[in-house]
Amino acid sequence: MSQARSVGVIERFRDRLPFGPTDPVVTLGEGGTPLVLAERLSERVGAEVHLKLEGTNPTGSFKDRGMTCAVSAAVREGAQAVICASTGNTAASAAAYAAKAGLRGAVIVPDGKIATGKLAQALVHGARVIALRGNFDTALELVRELAARHPIALVNSVNEFRLEGQKTAAFELLEDLDGRLDALCIPVGNAGNITAYWKGFVEAGAAPRLFGFQAAGAAPLVNGAPVKDPETVASAIRIGNPARWEEAIDAMRASRGAIRAVTDDEILSAYRLLAATEGVFCEPASAASVAGLLKYGADGAERIACVLTGHGLKDPDVALEQVGAVVPCEPQLRAIERAVLG
């Protein structure tokens, strides 16, 4: 397994990141996430499948890898505040790292379209949360204009430092698998993560095939055109016009991979499967990588990694909708026996 994450990705990979030895580092000990062999999923697929558990990062998602770099660079450049548009995870991460750095944080989220856990994180870390009457794509367009007018650091994935941090997950995968990885399955929303993984693989001299998966109701890269009103249960990838569109397509083509769509039913089926058979609780968007693998396979790949981008506690409402009810019981032994044993 990768080195303990208490060091943080900048300190651990400084020689491969745009930071000098005296640069400020804002870290919460991100990175070094577990890579777990998924035995039952491997049996189903007929290949060796590993799960990269990015939900174990400090704020519960892969965003922390890029945020440590983006916020550290903002501090280095003298910024007093950071801002982002977000479907949830970026907001939570930006708020936490801004708090750690002593900076003001502001996040713009689509009104009524952010999971409860993510909203709670952004608020508790003290960020100013603005609920926009519009979707993520509109929010990103507006914050880009705002950041261009004011001395505020924009920390969305259009920020190159975000990609620098996120590429470190590719380094970790290669370390944990002794350099042998045939294919990577990954959810695709704003397309920064698939772009960052490919950047990391190229820098490390590796070339696994990249298979990206979008939700069918928010699949602009699959359809070849922006989606005006994206909709999916996988809120983290509910994006209709990815900021890293061209880079993601380039990564897919260069790796001889593909970007495909999976339905909400397929995502939720994979979500339940991971929890019930592998003991892994991820948010719905994360399960898109496994849903895609189950639906399409990986074109003969023998060793596969599926990126699970966020923890299941990010979206507790969806989890509760997918499970059975709590069993009521009187405080008596016989009643407990009946409840437990049936």
Question: Topology, please?
Answer:
Elements: H1 9-12, E1 35-37, H2 39-45, E2 48-53, H3 63-76, E3 81-85, H4 89-101, E4 104-110, H5 116-124, E5 128-132, H6 136-149, E6 153-154, H7 160-166, H8 168-176, E7 183-187, H9 192-203, E8 209-215, H10 220-223, H11 245-254, E9 258-262, H12 264-278, H13 288-296, E10 303-308, H14 316-321, H15 333-341
Parallel strand pairs: 2-10, 3-4, 3-6, 4-5, 7-8, 7-10, 8-9
Antiparallel strand pairs: 1-2
Structure write-up:
α7 packs across α9 and α8 (168-176) crosses α9 (192-203). The chain has helices at residues 9-12, 39-45, 63-76, 89-101, 116-124, 136-149, 160-166, 168-176, 192-203, 220-223, 245-254, 264-278, 288-296, 316-321, 333-341; strands at 35-37, 48-53, 81-85, 104-110, 128-132, 153-154, 183-187, 209-215, 258-262, 303-308. The relative contact order is 0.15. It folds into 2 domains: 5-62 and 161-321, Rossmann fold, CATH 3.40.50.1100; 63-159, Rossmann fold (3-Layer(aba) Sandwich). The longest helix has 15 residues, at 264-278. The chain is of the alpha/beta class and 342 residues long. It is 42% helix and 15% strand. It has a 6-stranded mixed beta sheet, with helices on both faces. The protein has a 4-stranded parallel beta sheet with strand order 5-4-3-6. β7 (183-187), α9 and β8 (209-215) form a beta-alpha-beta unit.
| Strand fraction | 5-15%
Overall SS class: alpha/beta
Assign the CATH class of the largest domain. Alpha Beta
Q: Helical content, roughly?
A: 40-55%
Reading the helices and strands in chain order gives HEHEHEHEHEHEHHEHEHHEHHEHH
Largest sheet entry: 6 strands, mixed
**CATH architecture term of the largest domain:** 3-Layer(aba) Sandwich
Mean pLDDT: 94
Number of helices: 15
Measured distance between first and last alpha carbons: 41 Å
Number of domains: 2
